[in-house]
């Protein structure tokens, strides 16, 4: 994958992040068809905010997202928007989630930068998580 360098009038950057978060109480609620819908919603949300969607993998109890994000926009803001939008939409489309959880996502999440390895290495890692 070719490196994507973003620039505007005062900053040039190439920032990619590996983000992991899970449902409240780490409940295994992200199963079919919820998992496939969640992938679509995450992709749409990242694109809506003008950031770079690279890869996503949904396991029953957590999500791995690989994303490029403008440092002026802020990865914390993008994660907040993605978690908020997906929780709202999934709970509207799948009422059983309301019965199982008071809120869909935990407040916490993990973010790691991909600076130590190539973006392809992290992409392969995220893709390989489904088999575990």
From TrEMBL:
Report domain Transposase IS200-like positions. Answer: 12-129
Which species does this protein come from?
Dictyobacter arantiisoli
| BP GO terms, sorted | DNA transposition
Which GO MF terms are attached to this record?
A: DNA binding; transposase activity
InterPro entries given in the database record? Transposase_17, Transposase_17_sf
Q: Gene3D superfamilies, alphabetically?
A: Transposase IS200-like
- The name of this protein is IS200/IS605 family transposase
Q: What NCBIfam families does its record include?
A: transpos_IS200 (NF033573)
What are the top taxonomic ranks of the organism?
Answer: Bacteria, Bacillati, Chloroflexota, Ktedonobacteria, Ktedonobacterales
Q: Which PANTHER family match?
A: TRANSPOSASE FOR INSERTION SEQUENCE ELEMENT IS200
Q: Which domain of life is it from?
A: Bacteria
List, alphabetically, the Pfam families matched: Y1_Tnp
């Amino acid at each position: 994958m070719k490196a994507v360098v973003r620039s505007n009038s005062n900053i040039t950057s190439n920032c990619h992040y590996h983000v992991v978060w899970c449902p409240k109480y780490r409940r295994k609620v992200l199963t079919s068809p919820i998992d496939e819908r969640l992938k679509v919603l995450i992709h749409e949300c990242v694109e809506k905010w003008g950031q770079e969607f690279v890869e996503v993998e949904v396991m029953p109890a957590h999500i791995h997202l690989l994303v490029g994000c403008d440092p002026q926009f802020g990865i914390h803001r993008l994660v907040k928007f993605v978690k908020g939008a997906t929780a709202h939409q999934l709970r509207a489309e799948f009422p059983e989630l309301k019965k199982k959880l008071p809120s869909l996502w935990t407040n916490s999440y993990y973010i790691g930068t991909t600076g130590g390895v190539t973006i392809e290495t992290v992409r392969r890692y995220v893709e390989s998580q489904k088999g575990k």
